[in-house]
Amino acid sequence: xxxxxxxxxxxxxxxxxxxxxxxxxxxxxxxxxxxxxxxxxxxxxxxxxxxxxxxxxxxxxxxxxxxxxxxxxxxxxxxxxxxxxxxxxxxxxxxxxxxxxxxxxxxxxxxxxxxxxxxxxxxxxxxxxxxxxxxxxxxxxxxxxxxxxxxxxxxxxxx
Length: 159
Known about the structure:
Layout (H helix, E strand, L loop, with lengths): L1 H23 L7 E4 L5 E3 L4 E10 L5 E2 L10 E4 L6 E6 L4 E5 L2 E6 L2 E9 L7 E11 L11 E11 L1
Parallel strand pairs: 2-11
Antiparallel strand pairs: 1-3, 3-9, 4-8, 5-10, 6-9, 7-8, 10-11
């Protein structure tokens, strides 16, 4: 009976260590935040619309520029079947750096992703929600966190 009680205590301690370690693990979403235009955007059907998606990267962390050939660079993807056409994206340029001997282009701190697109003339007047995913992989000077897709919704009012 005593042996069973000791085994139970050991199993409980192992479970607590595993649970505590799992809570301490971070993902890229813990250190990178994206936000849409606060007031939404408004445009007439058939016109181009432009807006910024804000990126905020925690201190001591960085992400990689779009198109980085060594690591997963920042990328913006519109939800499939969304109403916008001819989407053009301008990513932050970042600065050159080195990560474990690889030359990379890093983005740190506060930045914006600039987006422009055509609102089709056939799009109904009223409010629409534009859904995007911003792919990021955050790294510090020692390690990289798992990449993630950060959801961003932009309110569009068609006049």
